[in-house]
Amino acid sequence: MLEYLYPIRTYLIVSGTIERPNVMTADWVVPLSFNPPMCGVAIGHTRFTKKLIDEHKEFVVAVPTIELLKDVWIAGTVSGANVDKREKLSITFVPSKKVKAPSIKECQANLECKVVNAIETGDHVFYVGEIVDVSYGDAFKTGSPDIENYKFVLHVSFGANFTVNSSEIYKP
Ligand SMILES: Cc1cc2nc3c(=O)[nH]c(=O)nc-3n(C[C@H](O)[C@H](O)[C@H](O)COP(=O)(O)O)c2cc1C
């Protein structure tokens, strides 16, 4: 039934540490509060990411553009439980400012989150994160996303079906 909520933006969730990072793809990311800034992500019980977030109580929400689609797909189809995904990915992990979970250099924003709540939601856990720091690239240098020059990843429907934002703006 959740297919009717799509298309949805797609993000990368980084967990672990700079020495042993893990990254998974997530559509189920949601803004929750301006002050303090908070966002949430629903992570399946079976994900290695869940184990790492439970251990470290931190994660980073990284914002990819379409150039990273191959990495987005690998991060979303391979589990870090058995494989070090760094061997398969072309992205670069860099230290974050306030959390141990690293950021991704090639992403246009990295939201550093500390877990303040975790709610069981069926087969997922909804982690509420306070955003304690952020870094961003040129796509956000004016304060709003530059949709003329940067194409953000949109997941059209379950499976390998993606698109990007259009650069058209509609005013109500
Ligand atoms: C486009 C896309 C979106 C996804 N969104 C989510 C999500 O929001 N929550 C989730 O738990 N898994 C999601 N997944 C599945 C995980 O990314 C996938 O199971 C991944 O291999 C888990 O990696 P890990 O075991 O290293 O944490 C998504 C996968 C794809 C391809």
Q: How would you describe what is shown here?
A:
By secondary structure, this protein is mainly beta. The protein has one domain (6-164): Electron Transport, Fmn-binding Protein, Chain A (Pnp Oxidase, Chain A), CATH 2.30.110.10. The protein is built from 2 helices and 12 strands, in the order βββββαβαββββββ. The chain has helices at residues 48-56, 69-77; strands at 8-9, 11-16, 21-26, 29-33, 38-44, 58-63, 93-94, 103-104, 109-121, 124-136, 153-157, 161-164. The strands form 3 sheets. Strands 3-2-6-9-10-5-4 form a 7-stranded antiparallel beta sheet. It has a 3-stranded antiparallel beta sheet with strand order 1-11-12, with no helix packed on it. A hairpin with a 3-residue loop joins strand 11 (153-157) and strand 12 (161-164). It is globular. The two termini are 30 Å apart. Bound molecules: flavin mononucleotide. Residues 10, 22, 24-28, 42-44, 47-49, 76-81, 124, 155 line the site of flavin mononucleotide.
Q: Any descriptors?
A:
mainly beta; binds flavin mononucleotide; 12 strands; globular; 172 residues; Pnp Oxidase, Chain A; seven-stranded antiparallel beta sheet; three-stranded antiparallel beta sheet
